[in-house]
Amino acid sequence: MDLNEALKMLANPTRRSILNWLGNPNEAFKGYEHLFPFEEYGVCASLIQHKTGLSQPATSLCLKALQDAGFLKATKVGKWTYYKRNQEVVEKVLEELKFVFGEV
């Protein structure tokens, strides 16, 4: 992933929040009803929408942008889409940032 594109994705606070939540979905979505364990499929888009407080179209745009950039993996289950954070991409971006700024 191009670091400039990654930084564009991360410039949006909602997209950053979504990535943060999906890093630990059991904690972030504690108390939300769900059909499947988050580890199996990820988090349903409707739960993410509820947590963001955005409309369905706005949430979908955020999720699509993150997926297109490689930050998220999507799985369709029936008519629902579930999202998981792509940890490999997150780690790659972090490594590139460490290279640019040096070890902190």
Characteristic key phrases:
104 residues, alpha+beta, Arc Repressor Mutant, subunit A, three-stranded antiparallel β-sheet, globular
Query: What is the helical fraction, as a range of percent?
Result: 55-70%
Please give the CATH class.
Mainly Alpha
CATH superfamily: Winged helix-like DNA-binding domain superfamily/Winged helix DNA-binding domain
Tertiary shape: globular
What is the gist of this entry?
By secondary structure, the protein is of the alpha+beta class. It is 61% helix and 13% strand. Helix 5 (45-52) packs across helix 6.
What do these coordinates show?
The protein has 104 residues and is α+β, with helices and mostly antiparallel strands. Helices cover 61% and strands 13% of the residues. It has 7 helices and 3 strands, in the order ααααβααββα. A 3-stranded antiparallel beta sheet has the order 1-3-2. α5 (45-52) crosses α6. The chain is globular and about 40 Å long. The mean pLDDT is 94.
Write the layout of secondary structure elements.
Elements: H1 3-10, H2 13-23, H3 25-28, H4 38-41, E1 43-44, H5 45-52, H6 56-68, E2 72-77, E3 80-85, H7 87-101
Antiparallel strand pairs: 1-3, 2-3
Helix pairs in contact: 5-6
